[in-house]
Amino acid sequence: MPTFQNADLHCHSVVSDGTLTPEALAARAKGNGVELWALTDHDEIGGQHRAAAAARAVGLPYLTGVEISVTFADETVHIVGLGFDADDPAIVQGLADTRGGREKRAREMSEQLAKVGIDSAYEGALRYVGNPELISRTHFARYLVEAGYCKDTPEVFRKYLTDNKPGFVPHRWATLSNAVGWITQAGGVAVIAHPGRYKFSATAEYALFSEFKQHGGKGVEVVTGSHTPPEYIVYADMAREFGLAASRGSDFHSPDESHTDLGKLPYLSQDLPTVWDLLADRIQ
Prior knowledge:
The chain is an alpha/beta fold. Helices cover 38% and strands 12% of the residues. It contains 11 helices and 7 strands. A 5-stranded mixed beta sheet has the order 3-4-5-6-7. Strands 1-2 form a two-stranded parallel ribbon. Strand 3 and strand 4 (75-82) form a beta hairpin. The protein is globular, with a radius of gyration of 18 Å. The two termini are 13 Å apart.
């Protein structure tokens, strides 16, 4: 079985809210020394066959991937799925249902922004959307920068589109049970994405990890683009405590917006079991 250190198992293409095509991402990953890659678009697996073909064309081992939006304890949590059958009917339908509420939410966001003097935000955001079913806050943020309301996307999220700020509209996503179930019954492994990003108390975080494991979840992102070096240690310890395999991914969206490029993260600690060890027979 090949061993990988520079695995990058979390990134986004134009099929959700990234700015590069699956083909461009495969080439970028290969060029940056990535040894095992997965495309993990938000609630969408429409780019999987393109990504797998592009990876094959450049000689890059590939795992299917997705990032599923979940509501847990009234917060949005993301669960990455890896190594599943991208044609499995249950996950295809489940993700379609999850995407279904995005347009209504986007129109409500636009209405809220109009009340503070930002007009036509829905139409502006649509210009950045490759797939209208997947319109998201990121697309609104790009429009607000283009239109001169903010200088960059971090400023957008300081002033708008987040809790208690103009343009924030909560959404009920899939349940944790749904997401883990779709992934595992399609032959894949479910992974808690970037746990350091969630604003949970220690008790709520413990509940997330416990319930995730009860539903059959098997992995956690330890080294990821939004984690700090101290958080690498915290979540390596959480992986050991809960008996979860470690994952690694940049969460790359765009050359202009992402502070961590594909393949440029520190390696995982050598003593940690990895999700790609669990998925050795699923690597394409």
